[in-house]
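re: ur question from yesterday

yeah so i grabbed the chain u mentioned. its 116 aa long if i counted rite. heres the sequnce exactly as i have it in my notes:
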Amino acid sequence: MASVFTNQTPHALVHLLPHTDFYGNDLNYQRKISFEACESICRSDCNCRGFGYWLDGDGNCYPKSVLFSGNSGAHFFGDMFVKIFIQMNFTASSIDHSNLDCPKVNFPKVSKAHGD
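ran it thru and got these structure tokens back, copy pasting raw so excuse formatting
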């Protein structure tokens, strides 16, 4: 998959999802790092789609290559910051982040065609 972002692409990091985590897909986990340093790591990496920053006593940084398998709740100590094109005219308030889980899909039962 081609990278949407380059170091020359104008983009912004938007505080989009409080008390949220996207499991896995960490690019380069960093411990005991400032928020500014974590943001800089993600801004300078074309493969970084956003980062999680956790203030659980240390300041842990989780740059993400993919934002998938999200979950939110008061039990999460961190927030997600997402890279978004400035030209997209996109605001954090326009997203409903209250439900990050996909609904369960019930597939119809399919009978075998070959009479096995």
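noticed a couple things. The radius of gyration is 18 Å. also The longest strand covers residues 78-85.
anyway ttyl
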